[in-house]
Amino acid sequence: MATLNVNGKVVEVSADESTPLLWVIREHVGLTGTKYGCGVAQCGACTVHIDGQAVRSCAVPLSAVTPEQKIVTIEGLSPDGSHPVQKAWLALDVPQCGFCQPGMIMAAAALLSQKPRPSDEDINAEMTNICRCGTYNRVRAAIKLAAEGGEARRG
Amino acid sequence: MTTALELSRRHFLAGSAAMGGLSLGFHVPFAGEAAAQGAAPEINAWVVVKPDDTVVVRIARSEMGQGTLTGLAQLVAEELECDWSKVTTEYPTPGQNVARNRVWGSFSTGGSRGIRESQDYVRKGGAAARMMLIQAAANQWGVPASECTAAKSVISHAASGRTVTFGQVAAAAAKLEPPKDVTLKDPKDWKIAGKPLKRLDTADKLTGKQVYGMDLKLPGMLNAAIKDCPVFGGKVKSFDAAKIQSMPGVRKVVPVGDSAVAVVADTWWQAKTALDALPIVWDEGPNAKVSSETIAEMLKAGLDSNDAVFVGNAVGDARAAIATAARTVEAIYSYPFQNHACMEVMNATALYTPERCEVWTPTQNGEAALAAASEASGLPISKCDVHKIHLGGGFGRRGAVHDWVRQVVAIAKEMPGTPVKLIWSREEDMLHGRYHPVTQCRLVGALDASGNLTGLHMRISGQSIVAGIFPQNLQNGRDTVVFQGLNPTGPEAAIGYTIPNLLIDHAMRNTHVPPGFWRGVNLNHNAIYLECFMDELAHAAGQDPLAFRRKLMAHHPKHLAVLNAVAEGIGWGSPAPAGVYRGLAQTMGFGSYVAGAAEVSVSDDGKLKIHRIVAATDPGHAVNPDQIAAQVEGSFVYGLSACLYGECTVKDGRIEQENFDTYNVLRMDEMPKVETIILPSGGFWGGVGEPTIAVAAPAVLNAIFAATGKRIRSLPLKHHDLRRA
Ligand code: FES
Ligand code: FES
Question: What pTM did the predictor assign?
Answer without folding.
Answer: 0.94
